[in-house]
Write a structure and sequence with these properties.
Elements (H helix, E strand, L loop, with lengths): L1 H21 L3 E7 L3 H4 L1 E9 L7 E4 L16 E7 L5 E2 L1 E5 L2 E4 L7 E7 H7 L6 E4 L2 E5 H4 L1 E3 L6 E7 L5 E4 L2 E2 L16 E4 L2 H5 L2 E5 L2 E8 L2 E8 L3 H22 L6 E9 L6 E4 L3 E7 L3 H18 L25 H18 L5 H17 L8 H6 L6 H26 L5 H13 L9 H9 L4 H7 L8 H6 L3 E5 L6 E5 L2 H13 L10
Parallel strand pairs: 1-12, 18-19, 19-21
Antiparallel strand pairs: 1-2, 2-8, 3-7, 3-11, 4-5, 4-8, 6-7, 9-10, 10-16, 12-15, 13-16, 14-15, 17-18, 20-21, 22-23
Helix pairs in contact: 6-7, 7-8, 8-11, 8-16, 9-11, 12-13
């Protein structure tokens, strides 16, 4: 009798488990890149499993973290269709920006659409969301994948079809049946998996006939550098720079928020500068096709910034970005702080890593100031106001916001150091904020100044009132004197040049600012 009961229970359990697998909610994407280089088009099919809601709304992202700018309303998603399990078409209405409602949701089995990379290139100011040329393709997950409303947390699989002449690198996890592939086939894998939409949004895909990959470890973190070029010298130079910056950044924070970090570089013919889109554990770069001496000038600051963003931006972030809502532009007054500290500390990390000389820093500082003055808005607009409408900023406003926020971060660092005789600094603030982020705490925008003051041990309310919430001009001449520099008017109106008042003093001062990290007071509060 007991054996019969046990057998019955085992049979019942088997039925329950098989049913749960059969009806598990899942999205299976097919991304076809085989003709993309010729057509600029990326056909995508999403097979829907286990979702039988009374409504079905499919949404694509309208912006990407790391950029914040909207896709300018351009409809790069074409030929959107839905069908039932027999292939019969279901009617679809576009109900919002990159949003479609299926008429008969209970029958929904597949969703298909096409990404037009050429239309997207015209609407993406960085041109890095999806870029196609003779060297291959670089694409970010925010423009490839969408989600069904109320189902952002379901698992997904991704089947990437790409030319036989190419190899593929991605930060998506390989499917379980491809975990034990031979090393020579590692970059020929086609099936990948994601736990939820967040992983899809942070995905990067790079395909190239000349794919070159290097992997290394730093203090327990694995780094993968992939480049669409057969130039071994270029790859080696990028790898060495990545190692130096990653080692310095990990040492600064004393912890790593990822186990693996992926850097994808697409060499784009005709490009004259580097464009980058940071992700949580990856970064995607479009770089110029040239010698390393030319490439490094624009690449290294972007590389340092995107690596720093893995902590400052994806860990240290506003509560409004935890998690981000991809259906609408983000509005957060604290974005000035994240944006400014990323760019300021990119220069600091390069200096600490030995990749930037004091004269190079002076040139970067001059460029920030020149960009700020050249793009200054006519009306009195504060950093907080600009941050709160960052998705709608014009290119001119964005340039002003980025340079002003960077210079404000520098000024705040020097303000803290000046008031405490170098006993405290913005270093200490960043380390404490990262410790809080590690304990699950995000930035509360309205109390950001209180948090910064507490971490720094200096009252920053007056600083914020004048230069962040207000629109007083930054007294840069006073601040740069603390670095041994003098501001000197240039011939162009509202621009500045810098000259060093005492070369040895300024070099020593920059080195002290760059290297000082007062960890003795940087504790979790």
């Amino acid at each position: 009798m007991i054996r019969k009961i046990v057998a019955y229970l085992f049979l019942l359990l088997s039925i329950v488990l098989s049913s749960s697998v059969l009806y598990a909610q899942h999205m299976a994407y097919s991304v076809d890149l085989r003709e993309t280089q010729a057509t600029g088009l990326i056909p995508v099919i999403a097979h829907v499993t286990g979702i039988h809601d009374s409504t079905a709304v499919f949404q694509m992202s309208i912006w990407s973290p790391g950029s914040y700018g909207l896709w300018q309303g351009k409809n790069y998603v074409e030929q959107f269709k839905a069908a039932d399990s027999t292939g019969q078409a279901l009617s679809v209405d576009q109900s919002g920006l990159f949003q479609w409602t299926v008429s008969d949701p209970l029958k929904l089995a597949t969703i298909s659409y096409t990404i037009n990379t050429r239309v997207l290139a015209a609407s993406d100011e960085l041109n890095v969301a999806a870029h196609v040329d003779s060297n291959g393709l670089l694409a970010n997950g925010t423009v490839l994948f969408g989600w069904l409303a109320n189902h952002k947390n379901i698992s997904s699989s991704v089947n990437v079809l790409f030319p036989d002449t190419c190899e593929l690198a991605t930060n998506l996890d390989p499917a379980a049946d491809q975990l034990q592939v031979k090393p020579e086939n590692k970059y020929r894998q086609t099936i990948f998996a994601a736990q939820d939409f967040a992983q899809l949004a942070d995905a990067v895909i790079l395909t190239s006939p000349d794919l070159n990959v290097s992997e290394f470890n730093i203090s327990g973190a694995r780094y993968i550098v992939a480049i669409s070029s057969d130039d071994e010298a270029l790859l080696d130079s990028i790898v060495q720079s990545t190692k130096a910056i990653a080692r310095t950044t990990q040492r600064f924070f004393s912890r790593t928020p990822f186990t693996s970090y992926f850097a994808f570089y697409h060499v784009a013919p005709g490009l004259t500068t580097t464009n980058v889109l940071p992700h949580a554990n990856a970064s995607a770069y479009l770089i110029e096709d040239g010698e390393w001496a030319e490439v490094r000038r624009s690449l290294l600051p972007n590389l340092a910034r995107s690596l720093f963003a893995a902590w400052d931006g994806y860990e240290i972030k506003s509560y409004l970005l935890a998690p981000p809502d991809y259906r609408d532009t983000i509005r957060a007054t604290s974005l000035w702080f994240v944006n400014g500290t990323q760019r300021y500390y990119a220069a600091m990390m390069l200096t600490r890593a030995g990749l930037m000389r004091s004269e190079d820093f002076n040139g970067m500082l001059e460029n920030w100031v020149a960009r700020m003055y050249a793009n200054e808005p006519q009306d009195s607009t504060s950093l907080e106001q600009l941050a709160n409408s960052i998705g709608q900023l014009s290119a001119r406003e964005r340039n002003y916001f980025e340079s002003r926020s960077t210079l404000t971060a520098l000024a705040m660092d020097l303000e803290i150091r000046s008031q405490t005789d170098d006993e405290s600094s913005l270093d200490q603030v960043m380390i404490i904020l990262d410790a809080k982020a590690h304990h699950g705490k995000t930035i509360i925008d309205r109390s950001l100044t209180d948090s910064l003051s507490l971490a720094a041990g200096v009252d920053l309310k007056a600083f914020r009132a004048r230069y962040v919430a207000g629109h007083d001009p930054l007294p840069l001449d006073s601040y740069v004197k603390l670095m041994g520099l003098l501001m000197q008017p240039a011939t162009q109106a509202r621009s500045v040049n810098f000259r060093v008042s005492d070369g040895s003093t300024s070099t020593q001062r920059l080195r002290r600012i760059a290297m000082l990290a007062p960890r003795k007071n940087a504790t979790f509060r």
